[in-house]
Design goal:
By secondary structure, this protein is an alpha/beta fold. It contains seven helices and nine strands. The strands form two sheets. It has a seven-stranded parallel beta sheet.
Length: 257
């Protein structure tokens, strides 16, 4: 499988990964196990997805069965918004590692550059966006403090690489002014309806790898009512024509645009 070498560590990250958002708990273990059998090596999870225990079960079953070794896999997870305070970052990273049943994450991202009030995992996990009153409660935590705590995860060997998600250029440039370890990845929504050329070019200039999520466009948002009525990319005439020309399926055509 094709890979890209990440800045600072040189670790090779597969160019194609299996996203775990919205994979149900009941199916997640088997889904991960079967994905490994089919050749996937990068798995993109998050505390907010609520399926880390099951994802870890599938991963560890594949290791136990001899399909792969841990070092063959690249596991990404993410720090949720309610845990941006420095005193919570390490505790949650360790909790998430425990759910996965592994000793380290290959990549750990700050899920959103939005700090929310702390929610004790014993009270509700994952805590999601809203408090018990159904409202969003912002927290006054500078991103610099969160990033410093992320860097400590690297120092302690809990994660190999750190990065960000849903971050635009101005914050990326700000992080570079104080970072001991620069972000090696920026994971953002990226597809033919949202190309973000300027951000992608900036990341290339800075040596930050870009991971695209929702690369099939509005399909991820239909059930959330946030697709804004955009036609499915899998049925878009430009996509279907490229698929036919390249003798590829519509599922792979958006990456060829």
């Amino acid at each position: 499988m094709a890979t890209i070498a990440l800045k600072r560590t040189g670790q090779k990250m597969p160019l194609i990964g299996f996203g775990l958002w919205k994979v149900t708990r009941s199916s997640c273990a088997d889904t991960v196990y079967n994905a490994i059998k089919e050749g996937y090596r990068l798995f993109d999870g998050a505390g907010d997805y609520g399926n880390e225990t099951e994802a870890g079960e599938g991963l560890n079953r594949a290791i136990k069965d001899g399909l792969v070794k841990r070092e063959d896999l690249f596991v990404t997870s993410k720090l949720w918004n309610t845990f941006h305070a420095p005193e919570h970052v390490k505790a949650l990273a360790k909790k998430q590692l425990g759910l996965w049943g592994i000793d380290y994450f290959d990549l750990f991202l700050v899920h959103f550059p939005i700090a929310l009030e702390y929610v004790d995992p014993a009270h509700r996990y994952p805590p999601e966006w809203f408090g018990d009153d159904g409202k969003v409660h912002l927290a006054n935590i500078p991103f610099q403090k969160t990033w410093a705590a992320m860097e400590e995860l690297v120092d302690e060997g809990l994660v190999k690489n750190i990065g960000v998600s849903n971050v635009q250029g101005s914050l990326l440039l700000d992080i570079l002014r104080y970072a001991r370890y620069e972000p090696v990845v920026n994971q953002v929504e990226l597809h033919p309806y949202l190309t973000q050329e300027a951000l992608v070019q900036l990341c290339k200039t800075l040596g930050i790898a870009v991971t695209a999520y929702s690369s099939l466009g509005p399909q991820s948002y239909v059930e959330l009512g946030a697709d804004q009525g955009a036609p499915s990319l899998l049925e878009h005439n430009i996509v279907t024509s490229i698929a036919q020309k390249k003798s590829k399926s519509e599922w792979s055509a958006p990456s060829l645009l």
